[in-house]
Protein: Proline--tRNA ligase
Amino acid sequence: MLRMSTAFLRTLRDNPADAEVASHQLLVRAGYIRRAAPGIYTWLPLGLKVLRKVEQIVREEMDAAGSQELLFPGLLPREPYEATDRWAEYGDNLFRLQDRKGADMLLAPTHEEMFTLAVKDLCSSYKDLPLSLYQIQHKYRDELRPRAGLLRVREFVMKDAYSFDIDDEGLHRSYAQMREAYKRVFERLGLEVVIAKADAGAMGGSQSEEFLHPTEIGEDTLVMSDGGYAANVEAVTTVAPEPLTAEQIAELPAARTARTPGASTIASLVDHLNEAQPREDGRAWEKSDTLKALAYITIDADGAEEPLLVMIPGDREADEKRLEVALAPREFRPFTEDDFTRHPQFAKGYIGPVGFGLDTDAGANGIRVLVDPRVQAGTVWVAGANSADEHTIGLVAGRDFQADGFIEAAEVRDGDQAPDGSGPLRLTRGMEMGHIFELGRKYAEALDLQVLDQNGKQKTVTMGSYGIGVTRAVAAIAEKHHDEKGLAWPRSIAPMDVHVLATGKGTEVFEKAEEIVAALEAEGLDVLFDDRPKVSPGVKFKDSELLGIPTSVVIGRSLADGVVEVRDRASGSIDEVSPDEVVARVLQQVREG
Amino acid sequence: MLRMSTAFLRTLRDNPADAEVASHQLLVRAGYIRRAAPGIYTWLPLGLKVLRKVEQIVREEMDAAGSQELLFPGLLPREPYEATDRWAEYGDNLFRLQDRKGADMLLAPTHEEMFTLAVKDLCSSYKDLPLSLYQIQHKYRDELRPRAGLLRVREFVMKDAYSFDIDDEGLHRSYAQMREAYKRVFERLGLEVVIAKADAGAMGGSQSEEFLHPTEIGEDTLVMSDGGYAANVEAVTTVAPEPLTAEQIAELPAARTARTPGASTIASLVDHLNEAQPREDGRAWEKSDTLKALAYITIDADGAEEPLLVMIPGDREADEKRLEVALAPREFRPFTEDDFTRHPQFAKGYIGPVGFGLDTDAGANGIRVLVDPRVQAGTVWVAGANSADEHTIGLVAGRDFQADGFIEAAEVRDGDQAPDGSGPLRLTRGMEMGHIFELGRKYAEALDLQVLDQNGKQKTVTMGSYGIGVTRAVAAIAEKHHDEKGLAWPRSIAPMDVHVLATGKGTEVFEKAEEIVAALEAEGLDVLFDDRPKVSPGVKFKDSELLGIPTSVVIGRSLADGVVEVRDRASGSIDEVSPDEVVARVLQQVREG
Structure:
């Protein structure tokens, strides 16, 4: 039991200045968390109870799925992260430090290396597998822009699990098992999630899915079709036309260069074409007939820079997040004026694919060019002629230019077709709550994790990786379960079961309240008791609504008439019951809830 | 239930090369912990269970004492630690780092600043006090010499609590309450402790006590008398003689200088005196008649150096730890040859107190001199004459030289008198398990923590500080509860309640074992089940003894005769019971234990 007269709790009437999303505002105002530094929070007593409940649900489902809990240090030596290249690849997101002897250390952002080494240390045979391990632990990432309270922070709690199998079949089984466990976790947390295809990115695995919680404040874009397709926008693959055959291409008219002064943007190019270069068949030129050139500098882990040309249909914008995933682990930035000066092959406003490419033996200029998957062999385009005030009309992909490859750099739009043929796509915002993927052998190879297989031969182990953002789950639940008055926790993770409010003035009210509190506690319920003697009923009600305990019991003026109230925070329902019935009524609510 | 056939557990037959103490050897060999870096450990599944049990006992007793749990970040900004000077004072023990924006940060070694600021943030009136807060959290200290497994590490779990009171009387009450809570914690952990006076040191509080666990491998020296005195040697005060009056001093013979060539050590000096300067009353010269000079350089937080002369009786050695406490927060080092060259006032081998001192107006040389408390006014000594090959005999303290103050720099010895008159002292080794002290207003003043008092005036809050080393408690318990075969956990913190061993070959044995395991689990017991099919009984017994689960059940060959064994790890007793009785017998052991 926690008495509000002595609790380390102060509710605030106003939203903190830096808080923009509801969960952040309410968690601070209700005294659950407190900012200690940018993106770093203190868990106050009630907040810590919520955090621990979320952790416990995650723990129980991991245990039920046969995963074993352990705990790695937060402060780690550089060497294992050096072996996997992540010491450099993490860039500025990694908190690095040196100890008193000058040894390089880091604050762990994730623990793939440590899990891999621990298994290498303890396991030697296929008989030790399959194996699933997890921890619930503080992680550190030096986010460039911490935001939205607990949603993007620099110190956070994460559950990370890894599976270890002797072969791919085992990995698929482990993956499927964790997928089921995750469904149960989010079900128990009262958090709707969509299981969306995810890009495994630099991790290089095969299957990869995110558990995305649909919410306006999500940082991810969730793409779904009515036919059941669901993916993070980063993982959506473009539906491309069939490439034409050499014979078909041979029949296409030759390309021709046209003067297009001042047409250095797609919009001005289309206007110019419709005015000065009308098509014979009378169709108007559209932006989708043109190619948009995107010039980037890509940067590898050592900081080495390289120019890159990306061509996408002129009616689409680039999607930087998709591009980021497509280029990872290389980073990138758009060309600056300086870059244009340094690389005169890029004729600003009039760039086209002809002459670009890595294959210098074939006469290309040595600069990589990647194109949207829609730019299949035989498709016809208008693009810059790599010379000021000139474009080429009727450029045929595969005939007039050869790209070094395809890239998913263009935006996905409402109405685009799902890659699995399940109909048109729609886009919503989502927040990543969990991520499961088949990591494969990347870490096992880098750190030489092998075991003896059934034939007595050394075999590299294959791994799966499974994460849940525990801190973020608290925020998402707060975000989902609130109204204009405050929080409304689901029972499974509420900091306390019941909030008892003594709102009268006489000693009788307080004595009866003490009695009811004792009776509720005797039933094993956690009680928050507003026993503050000189606080008005109005303030107590407001605090109660702000704190969001699912059930509250109000003992006040109506006690004289033999009535106390049992309130349900989520529905707002108020039951009037006699003091004798109150415990039974509360138990009913708690157990049904 | 944890099956050993699939558990992430590997026991080792040999002690790890770097392990010298039993707890370290056994915790690693039994698969409870694993070294990740110097002084940094991973908690493997069984170890984590023990750690969590210790944490839970500490948590329950803190809660019962009315302390409220919260959780501060591990990664903190520099500013609060700058305000209290601890950013500098911590020296190399602090892990410092910079974030991507160049802001100075630290890994918290303790959280006084954060607790103080949180209370400042939420509390404004004496009505909010008294208040007690705690956390159980990972701490970081960059120890120069991590050692003995979990006993001295760089990342560890600590429970730190703070009390906040409006006045000293309140602080004394809070302190007393925590003292009782600590007694209960260690009682439940099965860990004998002596409550010893401690030096509050740089913390500057008034009451300060350590909970020292007597053990040979302790780093502290515990000093006790039969009359009930107990203190850390660092806090022992010397029983000094009464100083003589000026009249008494006036009657003492004048000092005289004697040639003492080659007598640059105490031993050679005493030999020389007995040979060349025999006393008139025939008593032999003793080392205790002489003063030993100790020359140090002290260093403040900014690195500024200053020479210091310390004089102690010639029959005693300096105690560096007592000296450290006495000089804190200044650090120190003994004079090097260079220092002797730089400070020619120190005539190596022939240093005496005459002429030393800060009071240059009175003719002193400006170098601080501190003396042992036994060097009271009127005591008579032989000391160096500050000139090669000369000593002064009959030097009278307070007449021939004036010290700048007293210092507790000399060793305490078995047989010395307790300062409270409770008899002779005896010294043993102890390990600090907890520390409670009245911190006072140091942090509240530095960070401006004030509340309105009963008269509506701002008043600085007074604080108490209460720590328990949770990680270290695990090691101490392992150290205390083991034998040559392995660990023998007390039931309160054993990783599991029962270890069931199937040691036969037939399927019958394994089936019966499964049955018994299920029945024990149905009773709510945590079971470790050795179900490994092809492991010999001998190996299973050895593992069981090494792991140290308090009760084990052996189902083996004698099952054919209707007999299974219930073994008690601590006593070694073996009960033969029928399979039907085994659950009842185990429950009896668990509940009595």
